[in-house]
Amino acid sequence: MNKRPYVIPPAQLERLKDLSLFYPCSGEDYYDAIAVFSPYITDFWFVDKRYFTLRSALDCPPVLRRKADYELLDVKVEGLPLFRSRDPHIWPCIRTETYKHLPSKRVIRIHKRRGYGYSTMRYEGRMGKLGVFFYRGDSSGEGGSGDHWLRKSKLSEIYTHLVDGGLLALDGSNGGVNSQRHSQLRGAYKELFKYFYSWTNGERLTSKQLVEGVSAFTDEYNRHYECIGYAGDRYGPTMIWNVDRSNSAEPLIPSYEKIIRDYDNPTFDRFWLTDRLNRIKGFPDGLEKPYRIRKERLRSRRRYSVE
Questions:
Q1: Region 290-296 average pLDDT
Q2: Which end of the chain has the least Cβ crowding within 10 Å, N or C?
Q3: What average pLDDT does the segment 4-18 reach?
Q4: Contact 256, 282 (CB under 8 A)
Q5: Which segments within 57-161 are labelled E, that is strand?
Q6: Which part of the chain has CATH 3.40.50?
């Protein structure tokens, strides 16, 4: 399939100047997000638990080493550069590369963070407010994160970090019960997954036809979704959505302060063990149990991340 040109809506992107882009479970998929948003977004946060587990953050090649439009200015590493432990509690490391985007003369920063996506969104204070949530190419099977970021509850949490007028860039992967495949009624969110679960993935359509082929919709919280652009392909076309929340009635989001307070070492991204996950409150039962006991049960109990 020939690479289709991006469809970039400059009017909507102009208001996102100097904000952050967050891409959880990103792996080595960097360039489309950077190419589309670097004239506007300043900080790009790519998060994956596999970063710097086979190669030290001090020795990694620059992300944009083969891109002539970007000049590398500086590299900074914070945290343990190499983490090969099989312990599920991850010691985060952030490698920050600073570039000059030559066409726009803007300085951008690319942050690669080793850790869990949910922990990063909730506790990484340096990320700041989000202008774009970028998510694609993930799955529930082997090799995927199993994190259903497009569930209704997760979308609601994302919106607590996304500025008004912020954008979603999605290919529809790993949607959980919201997705077209798993929803018996194919509810309001089905447009987010339209190409991902189609027979052809929209491969015969032009970029403009892809954007025009999905319909605007309003969800149960009175958020209005409108497709305004296209940001390349991975498992399917990555569509850019504007979400108008000016008249929305947002649900109550759980507080995660108790989890932070009960960390025996808050520098780690925790991976919690429990018999039953209390999804209503947002954190496991029995959190007061000491870390030693949780670790001993690792081999015999199902594991849950804090999500």
A1: 38
A2: N
A3: 89
A4: yes
A5: 70-79, 93-101, 106-114, 130-135
A6: 10-244
- Cα separations (Å) of 42 from 115, 127, 166, 208, 243? 21, 11, 14, 27, 21
End-to-end distance of the chain based on CA atoms, in angstroms?
A: 37
**Cβ neighbours for 227, distance < 8 A, ≥ 6 positions apart:** 191, 211, 214, 216, 239, 240, 241, 242
3-state secondary structure 74-99: EEEEEECCCCCCCCCCECCEEEEEEE
Q: What is the pLDDT of residues 106-143, one digit of tens each?
A: 999 999 999 988 888 888 888 988 999 999 988 665 55
CA 245 vs CA 10, 221, 241: distances in Å? 20, 9, 12
Query: Which of these, 278, 223, 274, lies nearest to 256 by C-alpha position?
Result: 278
3-class secondary structure, 303? strand
Q: What tens digit of pLDDT does each residue of 50-83 get?
A: 999 999 999 999 999 999 999 999 999 999 899 8
CB-CB neighbours of 229 under 10 Å? 22
